[in-house]
């Protein structure tokens, strides 16, 4: 076992870890900009300087050479070293800025150099508040600038691609973005152009930065040089609150952070999960903000007459009563219940119990797989987030043909989430004359064609779990309030400054951002009461517990365990064998 | 200038292939070059030189040709071409005059030489004469401080100890198709022998 002394404390280690990585893993701080744990370390920001030396050993005897005081002699490296690309060796002595004034001075001078041409526009910069340059300048930087001449000017607000905007003056040329396109997304779209104080990242002339992962460079950028075209100037970082969540735009189950302000999801950023997505996510997943905020179904709506063009607002009670009337006046054989791989395990579970208890049938579902849309990284063929969940619950899987036949034969259809019309599986003609009760989140084409729409909570409004393509079960947290939830009472929800101090009488808080919808398990519980059943679930946890006692694969699966282990890997194939 | 790189895109052909072509001999030469380096990326520099010698510049179209020939990302070739001032990213005159105006030359009258050339050619630094003969550029230190003021002609010959008369002579030579001769200039103040002695002394 090799040993290393860092700031007077001896640590032992195996192999050849990089020094910076190791120091950070010991909860010590060394400032850096260009280093990133999953990319190569070019050591070009010169920020992570440390003083490194080695005990001198007698070559013949192998004993440590001692000085006059009987202390071990140390042979220091002639200059300070960058710790990010320094291989650790046995008998190394390291001093960080905590114990060495020269290192402190190096940090200060490096920062002064980096800041020479950096514009002083933190007050309007999107990165302010989460900017490594800003944070490290506060911690290690010089008090002021000694630079008295004009700063270098470079291109501003350059549209690098459809989703990324560059402000070259803010760039410190850490090359994280170019290394991302070279090493991670491998589109090789970015390069550093020109040199000296004029250099900045750019694309090749005539090409644009349209990498499907391009927006990761915005998160990587340690300054405000690369900003999101969509999110630019929308909010300050400290006004938003951050809630962990999942990317539901495909089956990969990428872990994300949802940034909300006043119950609007303003941006989505990746959350580190070594088992699923590392530090990255797709640009498509970030577009889900529109799905969460816009065109939401709010309050049940009903088509009063089959020939009416639009649906009119209804009340929850009326919606429930109407559902009951429709179901009771129809031969159960003519009712089709559809689950959805777009809905969570809990939603499908509650849906299944409702269907089995009251309609005496097993819901069926259809997968939404687009062959060829996967790329072996974070894009996958499966467009739905929970296909494996439906499979695990034992819903009846239907092919497109079987699905179309079932719809043609049915008179009343209760469906969840899926937009069959947009997908091209059904035409509006095919559902004419049918009574379609749609439980959904958005004004999809399906919702527009339905007879009755009942709004349910989406992935950012409830706690529910999804099983991804690799059979990992992960859960969401509520990030947005609905009309019926309250941040202050629900301890699972995070509270930002505006949430804590704003009231509905303030101009910055808008009640309209709360959607009038309920979790499906609550709706199903309320509905079942009409038939004299009690499927009362108040929380996704209740549904998961109930499912755990029925389905062996879900036994012992709790939100706590999912949180602790960053999702749980299920063994689906075994349970399927057991159940079949 | 910096905004220009994005404007260059407009002149690119839309079909994705370059309007320029390497000859068969050149392609064979590139294959030989590839064998000399462990990685293809390293061949970017010599191939860019080859392209500049052939087409007179390495504008985005030529950069694309180089990238496609070497099967490298266009962005990589663009970055390399943009890094070196010796690669001309836009068409230049037949002769490119790089007048050094860095410290030593500046002190010895480099700016005057540049001004003299501007007046004589009727263009500003960075421009090309209408007949396409001369491009005048201001250059940073070219490492010939001992012979200041000086200029370099089309990435090649250095002309040292410039005076207006010498500039006139050089321009005439260039216009008549001659290349100014290489001048060997000994270091002033220090003779060859004493130079050797001094070097020997410091070694001991």
Could you walk me through the main structural features you see in this protein, from its secondary elements to its overall organization?
The complex is a heterodimer of chains A (580) and B (204). In chain A, the strands form seven sheets. In chain A, strands 1, 2, 3, 4, 5 and 6 form a six-stranded mixed beta sheet that branches. Chain A has a six-stranded mixed beta sheet with strand order 16-15-22-21-20-17. Chain A has a three-stranded antiparallel beta sheet with strand order 7-8-11. In chain A, β13 (255-261) and β14 (264-270) form a beta hairpin. Chain A is an alpha+beta fold. The model of chain A is unreliable at 574-580 (pLDDT under 50). The longest helix of chain A has 15 residues, at 101-115. Chain A is elongated and about 100 Å long. Chain A has 18 helices and 25 strands. Chain A has three domains: 2-112, Ubiquitin-like (UB roll); 116-228, Alpha-Beta Plaits, CATH 3.30.70; 301-461 and 517-579, Rossmann fold. By secondary structure, chain B is of the alpha+beta class. Chain B folds into two domains: 4-83, Arc Repressor Mutant, subunit A; 95-175, Glutaredoxin (3-Layer(aba) Sandwich). In chain B, 45% of the residues lie in helices and 9% in strands. Chain B contains nine helices and four strands. In chain B, strands 2-1-3-4 form a four-stranded mixed beta sheet, with helices on one face. The radius of gyration of chain B is 20 Å and the shape is elongated. The model of chain B is unreliable at 1-11 and 197-204 (pLDDT under 50). Chains A and B meet through β9 of A and α4 and α5 of B.
């Amino acid at each position: 076992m090799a040993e290393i002394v860092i700031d007077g404390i001896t640590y032992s280690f195996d192999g050849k870890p990089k020094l910076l990585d190791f120091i950070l893993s010991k909860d010590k701080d060394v400032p850096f900009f260009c280093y990133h744990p999953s990319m190569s370390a070019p050591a070009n920001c010169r920020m992570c300087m440390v003083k490194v030396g080695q005990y001198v050993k007698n070559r013949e005897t192998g004993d440590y050479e001692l000085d006059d005081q009987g202390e071990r002699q140390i042979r220091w490296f002639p200059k300070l070293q960058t710790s990010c690309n320094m291989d650790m060796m046995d008998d190394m002595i390291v001093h960080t800025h905590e114990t060495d004034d020269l290192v402190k001075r190096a940090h200060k001078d490096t920062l002064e150099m980096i800041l020479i041409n950096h514009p002083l526009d933190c007050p309007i910069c999107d990165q302010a508040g989460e900017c490594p340059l800003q944070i490290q300048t506060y911690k290690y930087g010089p008090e002021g600038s000694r630079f008295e001449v004009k700063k270098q000017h470079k291109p501003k607000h350059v549209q690098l691609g459809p989703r990324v905007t560059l402000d070259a003056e803010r760039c410190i040329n850490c090359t994280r973005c170019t290394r991302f396109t070279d090493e991670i997304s491998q589109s090789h779209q970015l390069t550093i152009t020109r040199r000296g104080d004029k250099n900045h990242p750019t694309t090749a002339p005539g090409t644009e930065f349209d990498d499907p992962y391009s927006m990761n460079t915005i998160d990587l950028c340690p300054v405000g040089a690369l900003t999101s075209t969509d999110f630019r100037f929308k909010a300050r970082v400290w006004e938003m609150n951050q809630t962990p969540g999942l990317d539901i735009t495909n089956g990969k189950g990428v872990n994300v952070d949802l940034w909300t302000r006043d119950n609007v999801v303003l941006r989505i950023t990746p959350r580190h999960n070594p088992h699923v997505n590392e530090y990255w996510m797709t640009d498509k997943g970030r577009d889900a903000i529109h799905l969460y905020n816009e065109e939401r179904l709010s309050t049940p709506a009903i088509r009063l007459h089959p020939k009416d063009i639009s649906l009119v607002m209804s009340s929850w009670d009326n919606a429930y009563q109407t559902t009951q009337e429709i179901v009771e006046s129809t031969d159960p054989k003519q009712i089709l219940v559809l689950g959805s791989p777009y809905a969570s395990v809990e939603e499908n579970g509650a849906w299944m119990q409702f269907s089995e208890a009251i309609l005496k049938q097993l819901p069926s579902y259809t997968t939404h797989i687009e062959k060829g849309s996967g790329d072996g990284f974070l894009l996958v063929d499966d467009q739905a987030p929970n296909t494996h969940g439906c499979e695990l619950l034992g819903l009846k899987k239907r092919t497109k043909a079987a699905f179309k036949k079932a719809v043609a034969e049915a008179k009343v259809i209760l469906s969840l989430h899926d937009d069959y019309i947009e997908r091209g599986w059904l035409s509006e003609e095919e559902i004419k004359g049918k009574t379609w009760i749609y439980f959904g989140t958005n004004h999809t084409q399906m919702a527009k064609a339905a007879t009755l729409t009942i709004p349910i909570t989406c992935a950012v409004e409830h706690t529910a779990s999804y099983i991804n393509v690799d059979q990992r079960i992960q859960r969401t947290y509520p990030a947005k309030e609905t009309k019926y939830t309250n941040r202050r009472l629900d301890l699972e929800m995070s509270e930002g400054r505006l949430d804590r101090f704003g009231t509905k009488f303030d101009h910055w808080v808008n009640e309209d951002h709360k959607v009038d919808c309920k979790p499906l398990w609550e709706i199903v519980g309320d509905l079942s009461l009409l038939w004299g059943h009690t499927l009362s679930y108040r929380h996704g946890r209740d549904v998961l517990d109930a499912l755990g006692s029925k389905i062996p694969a879900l036994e012992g699966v709790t939100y706590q365990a999912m949180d602790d282990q960053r999702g749980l890997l299920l063994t689906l194939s075994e349970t399927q064998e057991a159940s079949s | 200038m910096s905004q220009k790189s994005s404007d260059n895109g407009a002149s690119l052909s839309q079909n994705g292939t370059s309007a320029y072509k390497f000859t068969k001999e050149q392609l064979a030469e590139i294959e030989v070059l590839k064998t000399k380096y462990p990685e293809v990326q390293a061949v970017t520099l010599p191939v860019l030189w080859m392209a500049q010698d052939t087409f007179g510049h390495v504008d985005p179209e030529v950069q694309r040709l180089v990238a496609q020939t070497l099967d490298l990302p266009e962005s990589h070739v663009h970055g390399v071409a943009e890094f070196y001032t010796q690669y001309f990213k836009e068409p230049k005159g037949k002769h490119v005059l790089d007048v050094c105006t860095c410290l030593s030359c500046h002190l010895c009258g480099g700016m005057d030489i540049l001004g003299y050339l501007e007046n004589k050619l009727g263009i500003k630094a960075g421009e090309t004469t209408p007949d396409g003969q001369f491009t005048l550029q201001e250059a940073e230190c070219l490492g010939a401080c001992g012979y200041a003021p000086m200029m370099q002609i089309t990435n090649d010959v250095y002309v040292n100890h410039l005076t207006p008369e010498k500039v006139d002579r050089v321009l005439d030579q260039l216009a008549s198709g001659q290349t100014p001769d290489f001048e060997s200039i000994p270091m002033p103040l220090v003779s060859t022998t004493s130079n050797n002695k001094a070097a020997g002394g410091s070694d001991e």
